[in-house]
Design goal:
single chain, alpha+beta, 5 strands, globular
Length: about 100
């Protein structure tokens, strides 16, 4: 069975219940055990993911992603957002990016 989040349909992240329906995906690669924020840094599909020391708060760094610079929970909350952007150039239907003001 595919990953489901409470209250979110399985295809909101471009995932389905049938593994055969999903494209083959890689796993994040740890690029540093201790990065600039004291925790691990990962590379995943062109993105850099920096985590705090506990690995409980991670930030997405992917300049062409609308959520570039946004912080989320653990690593597993960011990778589906990267997958959906890389495969369909969109965010989940419940999520909307707000443009940052110029010069910020």
């Amino acid at each position: 069975m595919g990953l489901r989040l409470a209250g979110v349909a399985g295809d909101e992240f471009g995932m389905s219940d049938t593994p055969a329906d999903r494209p083959e995906r890689s796993f994040p690669t740890e690029t540093a055990a201790v990065g600039p924020w004291g925790g691990p840094v990962y590379g995943y599909r062109g993105a850099e993911i920096r985590c705090n020391r506990q690995g409980q708060v991670c930030t997405l760094l992917m300049p062409d992603h609308p959520l570039h610079g946004s912080s989320f929970g653990a690593l597993g909350t960011i990778t589906p957002l990267i997958d959906l952007w890389a495969e369909e150039r969109r965010l989940p239907s419940y999520m909307h990016a707000v443009p940052k003001p110029v010069g910020v």
